[in-house]
Structure formats: C-alpha cells, structure tokens
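Archive entry: two folds, one per protein. Generate the first.
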Amino acid sequence: MASSNAPRSPQGLHGPQEKPLRDGAAVVLGLGSNRGDSRRILGEALEALGELLEDLRGASLFETEPLHVTDQARFLNTAAAGIYRGEARELLAELHRIEARFGRDRERERRWGERTLDIDILLFGGRVISEPPDLEIPHPRLTGRRFALTPLLELCPEARDPRTGRPYGEFLEKLPPQGIYYAGPGEYNRKK
C-alpha cells in the first residue's frame, strides 16, 4: 500500500513492477556534497533534477560525518523523489552530466572522498538491477547508510527493499548513530 507521502506512479516503491517503464518509475535519489557551497549546490542540483523527474520532492538537509574516508569535511545530504520516464541507465547518464556541471570529476577524485556533488540512484520503482560496476539498484550500500536512509524515509516512509520486502525503517533502526544531524528543511519544496 502506497503512503500518502510516497511518489505516485504505476511503478511504486512498495512492490515489483507491473507496467512498462514508459509509464514511469518512482525513483529516489540520494544527494551529497562537501566541497564548495554545499547548500547552494544541492539546491541548484534539485532544480536541475526537477527538469528530469516529474512531481519532484526534496527531503530535509542533513549534515553528516564522513563514513569511509574520515579526513575530510562533513557532508550535506538530502534525497529527492519523483517519476522518471525512461530506463535506469539513461537516468544514470543524466545524473553524471548534472554532477559534472557542478564540477565533479570522477576520473580525479578519491573513492568516498571530497566532492562538489554526488547523486546516487537509491531506488528505481520496485526494480532490482545489477549491471556492475556502475549500476546497482537498490544502491548496494543503502541499508548500511543512515545518511541515505533518513532522508529516503522522510519522503517515502513505507519504502521497502525490493530484494527482501523488508521495510527500510527496520534497517535504519538497527544502524549505529553514524554522525547525522538535521540541518534544516529542504528549500526545493518551499520554492514551489
């Protein structure tokens, strides 16, 4: 059953896909930044995503301690949910173009290091996609990342892992604190 806060689409986040992708898939994206004016970058990135996704909604902002590489600044994280009319691989290419527009250079950065903008596909409808090394949906580390689950669940509180059917809230409850702090409401929704 879809939550009133969950994106409306033929391909929801609560079960397997039932209709062709041309009808659209409910997607959830995770966004993060820790170089430059992160608040501005995330806001402008959400504006760009609003041109790609229908019915786009943004979550609150969260300041988070770096999880894997700790000798860097804290991140500012959020999530976005909307409807995408296309294939996951096409969406990934669009997201990489948006990241590059904000100065991300995947060839020169260190893994899990500093970045102006990182956009991950967390969920793509109820689909499970495995096209290593760059397209894994649901995101392979989603269930272990409080900074991704917290804003995802703000937007889609009843979202479930399409592999197991377990609510993402159960995964979040079992995670340690991981240094995530509320940093304010998302500006994207307030501009509309």
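Generate the second and append.
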Amino acid sequence: MKKMYIICFLSVLMLAYGAYKITYLVSVNKYKNDAVKYQTNEFKTVAVDVGNTNKISTVTKFVYETYNVNTGEITSKTYEAPVKYLGFTKEMLAHDLKEKDMGDNVLKLEILSFSKDEVVMRETIAYEITADYFIKMVNETLVIYLNDRETVYDYADINKASVPEIILNKLNTGMYIESDRELYEFLQNYSS
C-alpha cells in the first residue's frame, strides 16, 4: 500500500511539473511574438528636451544674495535647487517670483544670472532706521554720523586692539547705534 502512495505521489508531481513546463514554454513563445510585433516602430517618439535651453536641474546651485540698502552690505548664501523649481526656465522662475509674497522690507527680488549650473537671485531690502547714530571707521578714526549717514556728529579714536574682530569688520562697513546711552557705552569700552 505504501508503494501505491509513493507511485501516486510521484505521478502527481510529474504531472504538475509537466503542466508548469508547458505553460512556461507557451508564455515565452507568445512574448517573443509580441516583442517582434512591437518592434515595427508603430509608435513615433518625440524628444522631450530639444534645443539648448537652460533649465534648473538637481545639479543647479542657487546663490541667494541679500542687498541691504541701508548699509550697502551684500550677503550671499548658496543652496541646492529647490524641488519646486526643477525644470523651470528663466521665464518660468521670473513669473513665479513675481507672484511671491514679499515682506514689508523687501524692495525687489530679481534674477541676476541664470544658467543650468547656477542661478543667482538678489533680494534688495531696506529697513526703517530707528537708530540715532551711524558709526564707521574712516582713515583709522571712528566717525560718528547722525542716522542720515551724512551729517558728522563727532570723531573718536579707538583702541583697535581692544575691539573684537567681528566688530572691527562691522565698523569698516559701518553700523548703527540705537541711542545716546549705547553710543556712550561703546565709546567707553573701546576708546583709547
């Protein structure tokens, strides 16, 4: 009886393998016939990117400059291209920037240069000046202006050795002082 079960089991196994092999060969044959049929160029292809137009891609670097009208300072930061701008041309980017909601201090936002490798945009800002004084190093002397940056209020000598480098850099481009008290404290700390 055991032999009969083994023979039946092997027969069913061989029958299943034979069915699998036959369906496999039929499928492969059908696929080859269909492949030949579709190689006859029934479908026309159209190139998606024709010409030499510059478009923003994943390798495009965004240089974002901020120009402060009050101080004349330009700061610059480099970013990877934002995902929302991938595939944009210069015209598409300009249109999107026109519709962007700019803050109260932003005078304009413009594209300075545009290529597939780098996009340079500049935001021009101006802040309402609430400071009383503007100080700047001129020929090794600290010049104290009124907040209009033209009317000279006073001159002062400062000890450059006691001034931190970051403040010296600000003094070379100029910086605003908010009040008489802040000016007095600054001069007390750094006067020679």
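Annotation attached to the second fold: The helical segments are 2-38, 90-98, 165-173, 180-190. Residues 2-38 form the longest helix (37 residues).
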